[in-house]
Write a sequence for this structure.
């Protein structure tokens, strides 16, 4: 063993190449080259972030930004103060002293009958009693309670330039001015003022910012930093480490103070370890406004930009690629890269100092590829081919360990208690700190059935685990070496970690983590990536694995993996293989190709994304949910848009939704809307929940209920109406029918009566007629008899006429006929004359006979006619 | 507020105080204002003795202004020309001013040394910033001595530095003011 005492000369200090800082995400509210001056930050109760700027008011949901300007009715674009009242309305204070409000995206200018403020509004506060207070820069303090009141010097204000307002536990309003703090108490709308300043023990009169917590007011001043005022005891406590001048804003988060002061530094003071950290979100950016949200994020506003940082979990020290890392007992980080070995120290005030070590011969030619801090506080450096050294970090004394080793390529150094293990390309070497750094080499001859050893891990049971390149895992316990290779997909194992349950996990090349079941290692794919570069465990026994996608923290008890990637700004860092270390506080350090990543899981309450239903749309029309949603039957194509407020990683939010009375189960989606088409009439409740890790258990839900009314012809009312109408119609029909029947009956009865009457009458008539007929018959018989007699008489007359005709007519006719005949034979005119004379006599005779007959007949007819006329006159 | 208006305020303050017959104001008798740009690659210094200003002892109000083009020094004439033309645009914004009120109470009738904070609007390059600037006030029988050091971030006043010369011009300029004010 060669011992060399070398007092290392610290040749130079590196500039601030290694500033430890959490990730600061930058937001561009306008275009990237259009900087916006952030004046005020507010998170409303829905979850939206609001930014008052010199270029208008901005609303941000993590993904989308909406800007409000004078075009939207803002008084002026320059917004200097924001507050939300109990109704949810956002109040906006302007640079010109005027106020506006915004409610559901509708901006309204506010004017007071008593007059408006004339100077910039610096703060707005809604007190617990509902009174609105607003402070101005050089125009006094205002409060509104039915009327607007103004407080100035005449009312006892020491100054009218007011920076900030804060309410204490008694409901009194504190106003920070250039001449102390003014405590305003309202009684019957009248304010009584009490001034606290130098005379009260204040270290400075210019009070820029205040925060109240549990009976104590913390005040930030212009020149005396931050001090605490115990209200009940009227005592001032000055914290020497918070004596930061020109503070513009500050936050108290847990045990930490976040301080923005003039300059580009953002200071975070951790009371738990009395450590000040100095962060610089970006060169040239001067943080002026701070705001912390429920996620644990800190929003940083400046004159030319907006940033957000979790400020916890993971911090970065950007720089050159780191091949090995360790943390000494003072908390200083030792890291190696191609440029050599460096020690990075941060003092109590947050000032960082980085110094180079081993920059003397022969070490300048060596490459440090492994680092370790033993339990005596010594730093171990493993070289590539030159063995290792053990160095006293305080004195620089070095002990070389080289020739005793089986191999000089020290890939990693680990240990437990007084044993230090070196992993080499020819097995491993154990060095006993209590025995003068005695070296015991383990190789094939000693039963270690592998050459290339990546890591030796000593578990809580004292077993030593060997991760080899080609031979899987070897384990050394009291009974000797045990080889475990059968189940491993790859025979190359990079390292180990032990979880809270005492289970050993192996990091297998290209196949992720394997879990030791007591006999063998079993594959257990619990991480996002199977190519794990660094594996460790935190003080709570969670596995912490780092790969190209970020950091996975696996809780073996719950079986839950917590991913850290975009939200912590991991970026495209590539972790260096097995470049990991833990400090005394449980912080885990990882070397990457871009400096160091520090994981320090805090015990802050677990937060989850806040799922919020944003808008309710029917076709392309938005519906106001505040008035209830009762939709017509044809308003059944519904689109519901929603948000998942998770500013750490808004794109990583996943949703589950369920439309009760429609969907059977929760529906997963990464979209921000759900569409329901042709919903049947009914009552629905849309439920929404969000998660970033796929675990929706205990996730808060948001919901909206709505009703799609059936068409009127499918409503109960309609059915009832139809029933009533049908019943009425039936009733009417029956009634009408009855009435008709009754009427018909009456008519019938009338008719029957009439007919009866008629019949009776007819009968009577018939009877009369019968009698008349009888009489007529009797008359007819008489007349028949008479006519028969007449006929007989006429027949007798005719017979007489015929006789006469035969005897009386024949004679002249015969004479004529004879004379005619003679006339044909007459011979001369004399004969003719004579014949004609005879014919004349015969014709006259004939005429006489005919006349006689005619008279005779006429006499007979006249008699008959007379008789007939007599008979008709009787009728 | 333009520089002309600032000058007007100075004048109005002067005459208003005089007219009222109250305590007379203190005006600058002689002064030196200097600034230093201590950049990585270059140190630039310039001075002006043409600061005008007054303090009203009754109200503690003050107003100071300095012509930008009155600064002399620099490492070269070209540098001075760039200062006036490219950065300060002195033809457009010909004066820098600081107007406001002294926060602490000062007894101007008794010889004493006060450390005060002057709060007001610092107007440089047409961009106003509310600033609190510490100053040492030495009150003597015949005059007042003012001694103030402060810095001016260029970004506050919209003065942009080309990247090509970013290593030669500091982002924050250190300013020193020494002045003697006498009562009128």
């Amino acid at each position: 063993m060669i011992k060399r005492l070398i007092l290392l000369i610290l040749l130079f200090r590196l500039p601030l190449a290694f500033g430890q800082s959490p990730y600061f995400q930058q937001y561009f509210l306008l275009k990237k080259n259009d900087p916006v001056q952030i004046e005020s930050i507010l998170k409303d109760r829905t979850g939206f972030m609001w930014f008052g700027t010199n270029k208008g008011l901005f609303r941000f949901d993590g993904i989308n930004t909406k800007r409000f300007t004078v075009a939207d009715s803002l008084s002026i674009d320059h917004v200097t103060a924001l507050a939300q009242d109990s109704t949810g309305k956002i109040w906006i204070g302007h640079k010109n002293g005027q106020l506006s409000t915004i409610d559901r995206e509708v901006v309204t200018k506010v004017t007071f009958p008593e007059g408006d403020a004339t100077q910039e509004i610096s703060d707005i506060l809604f007190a617990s009693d509902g009174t609105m207070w607003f402070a101005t820069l050089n125009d006094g303090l205002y409060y509104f309670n039915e009327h607007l009141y103004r407080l100035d010097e005449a009312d006892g204000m020491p100054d009218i330039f007011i920076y900030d307002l804060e309410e204490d536990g008694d409901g009194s309003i504190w106003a920070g001015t250039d001449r102390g703090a003014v405590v305003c108490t309202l009684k019957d709308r009248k304010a009584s003022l009490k001034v606290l300043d130098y005379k009260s023990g204040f270290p400075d009169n210019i009070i820029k910012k205040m925060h109240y917590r549990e009976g104590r007011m913390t005040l930030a001043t212009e020149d005396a930093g931050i001090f605490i005022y115990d209200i009940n005891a009227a005592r001032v406590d000055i914290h020497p480490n918070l004596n930061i001048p020109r503070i513009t804003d500050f936050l108290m988060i847990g045990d930490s103070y976040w301080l923005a002061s003039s300059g580009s530094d953002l200071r975070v003071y951790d009371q738990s370890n009395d450590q000040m950290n100095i962060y610089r979100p970006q060169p040239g950016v001067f943080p002026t406004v701070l705001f912390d949200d429920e996620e644990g994020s800190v929003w940083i506003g400046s004159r030319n930009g907006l940033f957000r940082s979790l400020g916890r979990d993971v911090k970065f020290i950007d720089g050159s690629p780191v091949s090995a890392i360790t943390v000494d007992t003072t908390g200083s980080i030792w890291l190696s890269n191609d440029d050599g070995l460096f020690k990075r120290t941060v003092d109590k005030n947050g000032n960082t100092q980085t110094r180079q070590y081993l920059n003397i011969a022969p070490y300048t030619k060596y490459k440090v590829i492994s680092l370790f801090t033993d339990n005596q506080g010594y730093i171990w450096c493993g070289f590539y081919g030159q063995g290792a050294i053990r160095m006293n970090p305080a004195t620089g004394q070095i002990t070389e360990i080289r020739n005793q080793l089986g191999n000089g390529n020290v890939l990693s150094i680990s240990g437990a208690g007084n044993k230090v293990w070196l992993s080499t390309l020819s097995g491993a070497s154990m060095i006993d700190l209590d025995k003068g750094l005695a070296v015991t080499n383990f190789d094939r001859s000693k039963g270690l059935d592998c050459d290339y050893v990546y890591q030796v891990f000593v578990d809580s049971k004292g077993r030593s685990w060997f991760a080899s390149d080609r031979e899987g895992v070897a384990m050394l316990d009291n009974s000797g070496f045990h080889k475990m290779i059968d189940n491993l997909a790859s025979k190359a194992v990079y390292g180990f970690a032990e979880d809270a349950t005492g289970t050993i996990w192996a990091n297998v090349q290209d196949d992720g983590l394997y879990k030791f079941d007591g006999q063998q290692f079993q594959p257990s794919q619990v991480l996002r990536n199977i190519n794990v570069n660094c594996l460790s465990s935190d003080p709570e026994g969670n596995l912490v694995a780092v790969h190209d996608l970020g950091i996975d923290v696996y809780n073996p008890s719950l079986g839950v993996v917590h991913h850290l990637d975009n939200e912590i700004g991991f970026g495209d860092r590539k972790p260096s293989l097995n470049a990991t270390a833990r400090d005394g506080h449980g912080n885990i350090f990882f070397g990457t190709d871009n400096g160091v990543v520090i994981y320090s899981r805090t015990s802050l309450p677990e937060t989850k994304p806040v799922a919020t239903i944003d808008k309710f749309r029917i076709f392309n029309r938005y519906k106001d949910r505040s008035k209830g949603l009762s939709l017509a039957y044809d308003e059944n194509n519904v689109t519901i848009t929603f948000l998942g407020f998770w500013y750490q990683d808004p794109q990583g939010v996943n949703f589950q939704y369920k439309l009760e009375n429609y969907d059977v189960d929760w529906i997963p989606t990464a979209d921000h809307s759900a569409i329901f088409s042709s919903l049947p009439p009914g009552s629905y409740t849309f439920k929404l929940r969000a998660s970033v890790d796929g675990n929706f258990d205990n996730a808060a839900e948001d919901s909206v209920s709505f009703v799609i009314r059936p068409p009127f012809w499918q409503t109960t009312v309609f059915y009832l109406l139809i029933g009533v109408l049908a019943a009425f119609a039936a009733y009417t029909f029956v009634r009408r029918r009855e009435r008709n029947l009754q009427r018909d009956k009456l008519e019938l009865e009338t008719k029957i009566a009439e007919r009866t009457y008629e019949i009776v009458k007819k009968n009577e008539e018939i009877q009369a007629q019968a009698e008349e007929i009888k009489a007529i018959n009797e008359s007819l018989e008489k007349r028949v008899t008479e006519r028969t007699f007449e006929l007989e008489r006429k027949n007798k007359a005719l017979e007489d006429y015929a006789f006469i005709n035969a005897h009386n007519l024949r004679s002249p006719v015969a004479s004529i006929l004879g004379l005619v005949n003679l006339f044909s034979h007459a011979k001369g005119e004399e004969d003719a004359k004579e014949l004609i004379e005879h014919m004349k006599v015969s014709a006259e005779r004939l005429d006489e006979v005919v006349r006689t007959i005619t008279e005779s007949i006429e006499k007979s007819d006249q008699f008959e006619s007379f008789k007939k006329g007599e008979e008709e006159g009787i009728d | 507020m333009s520089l002309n208006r600032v000058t007007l305020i100075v004048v109005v303050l002067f005459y208003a105080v005089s007219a009222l017959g109250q305590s007379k104001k203190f005006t600058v008798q002689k002064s030196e204002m200097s600034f230093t740009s201590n950049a990585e690659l270059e140190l630039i210094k310039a001075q002006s003795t043409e600061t005008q200003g007054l303090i009203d002892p009754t109200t503690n109000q003050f107003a100071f202004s300095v012509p930008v083009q009155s600064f002399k020094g620099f490492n070269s004439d070209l540098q001075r020309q760039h200062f006036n033309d490219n950065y300060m645009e002195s033809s457009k914004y010909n004066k820098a001013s600081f107007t406001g009120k002294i926060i602490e109470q000062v007894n101007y009738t008794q010889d004493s040394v006060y450390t005060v904070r002057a709060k007001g609007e610092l107007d440089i390059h047409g961009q106003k910033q509310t600033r609190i600037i510490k100053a040492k006030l030495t009150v003597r029988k015949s005059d007042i001595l003012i001694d103030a050091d402060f810095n001016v971030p260029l970004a506050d006043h919209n003065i942009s530095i080309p990247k090509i010369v970013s290593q030669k011009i500091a982002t924050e300029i250190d300013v020193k003011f020494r002045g003697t004010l006498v009562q009128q």
The longest strand of chain B covers residues 26-38. The two ends of chain B are 27 Å apart (CA to CA). The beta strands of chain B are 26-38, 43-48, 52-56, 61-67, 72-73, 95-102, 112-124, 127-139, 143-153, 172-183. DSSP finds two helices and ten strands in chain B.
